[in-house]
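Private note to self, pasted from the team thread so I don't lose it. Backbone tokens:
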């Protein structure tokens, strides 16, 4: 399980840099923006794989699953909302809504909404359709690709959804991939070529089209599959790196804190005219710092709670 998490931090940084592309006419930022699609898809892939692993290997993992996920959703989104509200207040930035509840909902990263949708879906399938989990997950993703482009729902909600379904499939059938000869490059070439062709198709059609959605999801699947094939023989030195473990542990925080930081720094940039290259670097550094503080605070709260709970039991 630990092996497939190797790229979490680096992909989260690419996503943050990609979201600063509107600050300047840079070919580098435009390329990174295109990579964002597969980066987000890889996070969905990790979630699908990780959820399958947890349900299969952790005793009573489904017990109070919905309650635990609801609490985790609040623990992820509430600090971001408070942080954004404070930043907007001190920098005199107008909130997205004067209604606190709507403002809170607007502050939630779209990725979390889709991710928790898949959490609930997987839980329901596990409880009632255990043998068809993989098939029904793929059917759900295909349905999103076919029907959501016909609505006003933003394209990001269906451009990378198949990453989650692939994660479920890889957990179930990953051993077959591991049996591929290490010196065979044909599978790698086939995956890369399919991804390249799909990207050309996806970029040739309007964003809100079924063909574009299909093409971009094939790109996501190809990218995730390629990375999985590459890292399946990763050595223990890289996997056991303490620095890499720490960086990966703050990747989620980097992802969810990026938008309020980008909004705040963009406001400053509009006033003082900072070069976009410095803007991107500043956003990455600031987001990493905030994510680190968020992690330390949460670990501290959990530690204090566990000590008090243990004391009460004793």
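Design output:
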């Amino acid at each position: 399980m630990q092996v497939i998490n190797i790229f979490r931090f680096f992909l989260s940084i690419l996503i943050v840099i990609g979201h600063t592309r509107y600050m300047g006419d840079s070919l580098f930022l435009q390329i990174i923006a295109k990579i964002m699609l597969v980066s987000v898809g890889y996070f969905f892939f990790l979630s699908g794989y990780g959820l399958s692993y947890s349900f299969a290997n952790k005793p009573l993992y489904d017990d109070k699953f919905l309650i635990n996920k609801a609490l985790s959703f609040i623990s992820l989104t509430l600090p971001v909302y408070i942080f954004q509200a404070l930043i907007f207040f001190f920098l005199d930035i107008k909130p997205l809504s004067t209604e606190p509840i709507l403002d809170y909902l607007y502050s939630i990263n779209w990725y979390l909404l889709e991710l928790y949708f898949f959490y609930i879906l997987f839980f329901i399938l596990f409880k009632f359709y255990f043998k068809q989990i993989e098939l029904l997950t793929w059917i759900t993703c295909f349905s999103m690709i076919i029907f959501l482009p016909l609505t006003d729902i933003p394209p990001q909600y269906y451009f990378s959804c198949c990453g989650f379904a692939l994660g479920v499939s890889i957990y179930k059938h990953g051993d077959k991939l591991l049996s591929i000869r290490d010196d065979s490059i044909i599978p790698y070439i086939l995956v890369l070529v399919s991804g390249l062709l799909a990207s050309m198709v996806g970029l040739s059609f309007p964003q809100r089209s079924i063909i574009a959605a299909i093409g971009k999801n094939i790109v996501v699947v190809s990218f995730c599959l390629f990375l999985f094939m590459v890292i399946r023989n990763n050595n223990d030195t890289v996997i056991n790196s303490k620095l890499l473990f720490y960086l990966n542990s703050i990747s989620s925080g980097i992802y969810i804190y990026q938008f309020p930081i980008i909004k705040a720094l963009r406001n400053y940039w509009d006033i003082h005219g900072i070069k976009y290259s410095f803007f991107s670097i500043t956003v990455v550094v600031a987001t990493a710092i905030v994510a680190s503080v968020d992690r330390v605070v949460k670990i501290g709260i959990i530690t204090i709670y566990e000590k008090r709970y243990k004391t009460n039991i004793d």
